[in-house]
Amino acid sequence: MMSEIKVSVKGWIKSLLFNVFSKVGLWHIFTNKAKTPKILMYHRLTNSNIIPGISTAKFEAHLQHLCNYYEVVSVEEIISDIKKNKYNANKIALTFDDGYVDFYEKAWPLLKKYNVPASVYITTEFIEKKRWMWPDKVRVMLDKTTLRKINIPLVGELQLTQQNFEKNWHIISDYCLSLTEFEREHFLLELTELLEVPIKECPTSDFSALTWEQLLIMQQEGLNIGSHTITHPILTSISNEQLTNELSESKCVIERMLNIEIKGICYPNGMPNDVSTVVIETAKNSGYSYGLIAYTADVSYTNLFKTDRIPASENIAAFAFSLLS
Question: Which listed residue, of 71, 145, 153, 252, carries a Cα 20 to 30 Å from 263's Cα?
C-alpha cells in the first residue's frame, strides 16, 4: 500500500512540474541537461480497451512535445553519430514494432503532419498474412469467452472478469514465453477449446498488419523500415539454424519486396534474456548494422547491437520525464 502511495505521489509531482514548466515555456531547463540521444519504442495507436497502445490524441501530444524541445531524427542518424563518436543529446528517434496497419492509418498521417521521421520493424509472415502476432490471439480469447473462470493446466485457475483482463493476459503470455514455438502453438490451440473461442486463420481487422503496398508508399515518402524477424520467436529459444533463417531470410524478404537495404534488426520481445552473444553474432553475420532491444540499459554505446530504447508512456508528464534520464 505504501509503495502504491509513493508511486501516486511521485506521479502527481511530475505532472505538476511538467504542467507548470511546459505552460510557461521553460521545460527546456530540464531537457538541456540530457546527456545521451534516445530512441523511443511504440507499438500501436488505439483507443481499444483490450489492445495495448496509446491514443491518436496522446501520440500527437508526444509529437508536439518532441518538436518543441528536441531534434527528432531517424534511428540510423543516431547510429551514424554513435559510430563517429559524436553524441547529440538533444536527438530523439521514434520506432514502431511489429507492423500493424494502424501505423499507416493513424501514426503516419501525424508523422507527416509534423515532418517527423520514424522507423517500423516488421515481422514478415505477419505482413504476409500467414500468422497472427500470438499475444493478440490471447487477447481475443479472453475478450470473447463467455466463461466466468477457467483452470488451465500448468497455468492455474483464472477468474475471467474484465477487471482481471490484463492480469490474466500477462499470466498466460508469460507462460507462452516459456514454451518453444511448437509448444506454444499447441497450447494456444488447446486454449481456444478451453475458452470456447474459435480463432480465425487470419488476424481480424483490429489486429491486422500493414501490406507491402502500404509499406512501399511510406518508404517512398521517407519511412525507414527494418526487420523484426520472420515469425517473431524468442531468438534465444530456437536452434542456431532457425536463428540464422529468422534473421537473414526476413532481411532478404524485405529487401526483395521493397528494393531497399535493411540495416536494423529489432529483437522480438527484446528483454535481456532474449538477446545473447550468439544472437548478436548471428545478426552481424546476417548483414545488419545495429540491433534494438526493448528496455533501457546503462548506455555505453560500445555495442550497437544492443541499442536501448525507452517505452513511450501514454501519460504526457511521465513521457516527458522518461526522456530526461
Answer: 71
Do 89 and 37 contact (CB within 8 A), yes or no? yes
Whether residue 10 is predicted with pLDDT greater than 70 in this model: the reply is no
Split at pLDDT 50, 70, 90, the class of 35 is confident
pLDDT tens, 268-289? Answer: 999 999 999 999 999 999 999 9
Query: How many alpha carbons fall within 13 Å on the CB side of residue 41?
Result: 17
Q: Are 42 and 96 in contact (CB under 8 A)?
A: yes
pLDDT band at 70 (very low <50, low <70, confident <90, very high): very high
Q: To 5 degrees, how large is the angle CA 96–CA 77–CA 261?
A: 70
Give the pLDDT score at 11: 65
The DSSP string of 280-312 is: HHHHHHTT-SEEE-SS------S-GGGB--EE-
Scan for cell 519504442, then name that residue: 41
Q: How far is CA 98 from CA 19, 88, 228, 269, 276, in A?
A: 33, 28, 7, 10, 21
Would you say 196 and 166 are in contact if contact means Cβ atoms under 8 Å apart? Answer: no
Give the amino acid at 19. N
Cell numbers found for residue 126: 505477419
Mean pLDDT (whole number) for 209-228? 97
